[in-house]
UniProtKB/TrEMBL annotation:
InterPro entries: Cyt_P450, Cyt_P450_CS, Cyt_P450_E_grp-I, Cyt_P450_sf, Cytochrome_P450_monoxygenase, EVE_domain, PUA-like_sf
Binding-site list for heme: C483
Organism: Glomus cerebriforme
Cofactors named for this entry: heme
Record-given protein name: Cytochrome P450
Amino acid sequence: MKKYWIGVASNDHVKIGVKEGFAQFGHGKLSPIKRLRNGDIIIYYSPREEMNVKSLAIKGFTAIGVIEEKIPYNPPNPARVKVIYLAYFSPLSKIPGPKHFALTKYFFSMKHSKGMRWKWLQYEAFPKYGPVVRIGPRAVIIADRDMIKEILITKDLPKGQKYEQLRTGPEFPTLLTARDKTFHKQRRQIIAPAFSFKYLNSIEPLIHKCINELIVKLDEMISQNQHTVNIYKMIQLCSLDIIGETTFGGSFKFIENGEHPLPRKIFQELRRRIKTGMYPFLKPFMKQDPYLLNFMTSLIKKRRQENSKKKDLLEILLNTSGGEGGMLDIEVQHQAIEFLIAGSDTTNFSISMVMIKLIQNPDKMNILVKEIEEAFPEFNIDKLPSHDELKHLPYLNAVINETLRLHPINYDVGPGRITTEDTMIGDYFFPKGTTLVINMYRLHHSPKYWGDDVEEYIPERWLDPEKIPKDCFLPFSAGTRNCIGQNFAMMEIRIMVATLIRRYKFEDIPNQDMDIIHFFTASLKTKQYNIKINLRDLK
């Protein structure tokens, strides 16, 4: 006997589906649909006047169909239906991007696994699809100035679940990986004193001490006729010593001792976290190396045994343990590891790129040398230029800003923010649960904002602030989750760059591999850049 079935789309299903041209039958349940038989007649009814869905243009329709006698009903695979819906019928289907990327997140993950997704985005995806590109079933990457501001500042969307996969321990959120806004605010208040201007002024002599050790090492190499130096490596070792001296109570002595496994272990741990985040099924095969945790445990144990009170970040963290809202020692370990990873790799890359750009552009180098010589006519290794004096030098700041524009601290602002409800940002509708990745590299390299000379190294563009496009320079991110260490980083960059340029003459060695890889932070693929160095004639 024939049966007549009436399927009525609910408000929720219209909101999800009709805007894209269909509505779910049977409210997405298989049990009533399984009762359909050959010859049954379906009436699908969706009256426009009864649907009250805000801001959506809903078209009412009535459809009648018959279950064909020769084709028995076979319920579709729910997973397959879900994939088809996400790819072709979800609100994100209107956002441009490679069609196959809409089927699974792994196509984009493959771009990332080799550290080269930034290059694909900059030179293929954004030029072809525009500043908003769909990169997965529920993921979009954005390089539009106004949308970025709305995501990071106006709406301050929370961080996505992938941040949990970046933690050293899943149950120990840190300042970077915390998703809960209240937790992040409390943790930032605990750590903030270590990045205040008062504290930074107090540790400046420690930065000078580490840079002096770098000078001693370079002078020694020059005296032994070793004029070819891997500037990338030397800056990396010095940056790690600065972190040790200012954060953990003493230099790691990397400059003095040369090779050390820590930089390699940091890079390996970063890659492990990124890869297991992209491919969770790899976790059993890519176990966490205990080296970093053991390294930090040893530092904390030593500090406890010394019973000394040093004015550094580690002491600030340890002083909170045991108190209300304070941190357990295990939490201190995980937070300290984060600072070790974030502080070394990012600042090292920034300083290295400032130096490399100057060495590759001797005309710009000469302008900066003249500015520094005029500001500091006498150079004394025992009294390096102070940050208070350096921060007002216009061309030094222009050189640093131009390098940070071309090579921001992070090319992407982490794994992305997430919409906690259906959201309109700009002209785009993002359903609840959409991951929005901010791409700083494209924002800094967009001809729309910076002009046709966007790819050129022109520090002079920064000498006229009115010519800098508004809200288009965000090397340390923006909003409540901006980089807490940005003032520390700028101080270290200014002092090290000014000191090296004031004391040494540099010459480029052409035709070196400058390939950049980007996982969570950027780095030179070869981990080296060789230059020729000699002492400058000091007045």
